[in-house]
Structure formats: structure tokens, C-alpha cells
Amino acid sequence: MAIARLEAVLLDIDGTLVDSNDAHAHAWVDALTAAGHDVTFDRIRWLIGKGGDKLLPEVTGIDIESERGKELAEQRTKIFKQKYFPKLQAFPGAKALLARMHRDGLRLVAATSAKEEEMGALLEKTGAADLFYRATSSDEADRSKPDPDIIHAALHKARCRAAAAIMLGDTPYDIDAANGASVRAVALRAGGWPDEKLRGAIAIYDNPESLLAQYDSSPFARSEA
């Protein structure tokens, strides 16, 4: 059975295009520790990629929609923006990879568990925010990754069927969300996850730069069905 011609790429940002996973984890640890919660960086680090709606109750038992949950989430956001965001950088090759995809006529749609305001700032870090056709944040999904809601929303914005899109991410949560929406996933090791945790991806590359170097033999090289 022929695979549909690729039309769109759904892109995670944190850990995929921008080296920010550790920063997000540190911001959560800072906020929760200050509030009296006994959490470790290692525990939080491997939950990054999920939205706060899943991460917070998993480590504290607090619903993010509760008054206390909202306070903690707001404090995390404040710490992230003030202490960690200014130091963030895109991964080498991220901008060039996005430019290649855009030049090939692929519609680029951000599909992230980040809030809309944070998402916009992170896209600017790539140096190629203007190349994105659309962007989808956690504000547009009832449930964050690994649930497929954000992928469904991104497909709608991309104006394409699941078979004509590929998700590019760095965590098992990206892969599970994509597969849950019947979208193929390609993974990058840039976010720190080992290959055995990225099972379910149709291909795995080290980082944006290595994917770009192998682009012509990658699943992103467009071909007619």
C-alpha cells in the first residue's frame, strides 16, 4: 500500500528544536521545592514533554486546575521566564532544517504541550518562527501529550490527513501522541532519551543537524505516492 505524499510536519519544540528540557525541569523543581514539595531533578526531568496538567498531579497529587495548582504553575512559568529562558538556544542545525522543510513545500505546524505565550517565545528562539504555517499549543487541547489531542488539533491546522503528516519530537510522549492520532513519528535523541524509550518512531536521529545531513534519505524527503 502506497504511503500518502508528505504534506506537513508537526514539530515539537522543547528538546527537539530548542535545548530547553533541562531548563523546564529545573523551573519545576525550583517552584515545587520552594512550595515545600520534596522533588528531585531526575524525577521531573523524565516527565518533561508531558503538559503541566499531567506532570503536576503525578509528582504532587495536586490538580493543576485547582487554586493551588494554578499558583504552582504560575510560579513555575515566572521562574522559567526570568531565570532560564534567557539562556536557551536552538540546537545547531534547527533553523537550517526548518528552512529545508519549508523550501520543500512542507507545511510546518508546531505541536507542543507548552502554553501559547511560552510557545511563541520558544519559536522565536529557533530563528525561523516566520517559516511556521501554524502553531498549536496546550491551550488548544483538552489533554496534553501523550494523549493525541494536540496532534489532532495540529492536523486540523495543517489541513492534511494523518497519513500525509509526520511528527518530529524527542520524547516517548511525542511518539505516543502521534501514534495515537495515526501519525508517523520521527525522533531525535537531542532531548536526552535513549533509543529504547523512543520505540514507535519510524526513524531516530541524533539532533536537527544530523537529520539535516541525512535529509535526502530520511522520511521527510518528499516523494510521489
Q: Mean pLDDT score, rounded?
A: 94
Class from helix and strand fractions: alpha/beta
**Strand segment tally:** 6
Helix content class: 40-55%
Strand arrangement, largest sheet?
3-2-1-4-5-6
Which strand-content bin applies to the residues?
Answer: 5-15%
Q: What distance separates the N and C termini?
A: 9 Å
Q: How large is the count of helical segments?
A: 9
CATH topology of the largest domain: Rossmann fold
C-alpha-based Rg, rounded: 17 Å
- CATH-scheme architecture of the largest domain: 3-Layer(aba) Sandwich
> SSE order in H/E notation?
EHHHHHEHEHEHEEH
Low-confidence stretches: none
The CATH class designation of the largest domain is Alpha Beta
Strand count, sense and closure of the main sheet? 6 strands, parallel
Number of domains: 2
Specify the CATH homologous superfamily of the largest domain. HAD superfamily/HAD-like
Shape: globular
Compact summary:
The chain is of the alpha/beta class. The protein is 40% helix and 11% strand. Helix 1 (21-34) crosses helix 4 (67-84).
What features would you describe in this structure?
The structure is a single chain. The chain has 225 residues and is of the alpha/beta class. The chain has 2 domains: 142 residues, HAD superfamily/HAD-like (Rossmann fold, 3-Layer(aba) Sandwich), CATH 3.40.50; 67 residues, DNA polymerase, domain 1 (Orthogonal Bundle). It contains 9 helices and 6 strands. Strands 3-2-1-4-5-6 form a 6-stranded parallel β-sheet, sandwiched between helices. Strand 2, helix 6 and strand 3 form a beta-alpha-beta unit. Helix 1 packs across helix 4. The radius of gyration is 17 Å and the shape is globular. The N and C termini lie close together (9 Å). 46% of the residues are buried. The model has no long low-confidence stretch (mean pLDDT 94).
